[in-house]
Amino acid sequence: MTSNKVIVPSRRSFLGNTAKLSAAAVALLAGSEVLAQGSGSMQDVNILNVALGLEWEGINAYQLGAQSGLLQKPVLDTAVRFQTDHKAHAETLAGAIRALGGKPVEPKSIGEYAKALKADTLKSQADVLELAARLELGATNAYLGVIPAFKDAKLAQVAGRLAADEVMHWTILNSALGKPLPAGALPFGA
Length: 190
Hints:
It is built from seven helices and no strands. The protein is mostly helical. It has one domain: Ferritin, core subunit, four-helix bundle (Ferritin), CATH 1.20.1260.10. Helix 3 (40-67) packs antiparallel against helix 4 (73-99), helix 3 (40-67) packs antiparallel against helix 6 and helix 6 packs antiparallel against helix 7 (153-176).
């Protein structure tokens, strides 16, 4: 994935207390601290690094779900597929950060993610799917929230494509849980 162009990915984010994107991560992505720091490409690097940190968390959340022994075969296959998507997102974001002269944020340990996501409270396949769906929805809204903040229009497009992947993941997870689609138009990004 090395080229002179920003590679356009698609994916998600999350920090949470077993249910939703943390308020701190949303605030960072949506515009407070990170967006206030720097300008131009360094501002974009800061935003991308927050997104990369959230991708690392997503990768590890799916790892925790896969290792839990709670997921049945077809659901496990889907979780691994979504994790693969998140790995591609992380690679793309890290490449964009490097191309802008920044240093990509490193992942934390699996134990740190397990504690932050309260993995010890997951007792069933439905619990794992609920967590994943909430994180995917949080990621969708976070990516949609940062699109206007990018100085580089290509990076805004990347965030849009990441949000689209998040919506796809959320929709599949929500369907697997037997939940209906949201009522009304424009349910995401609000």
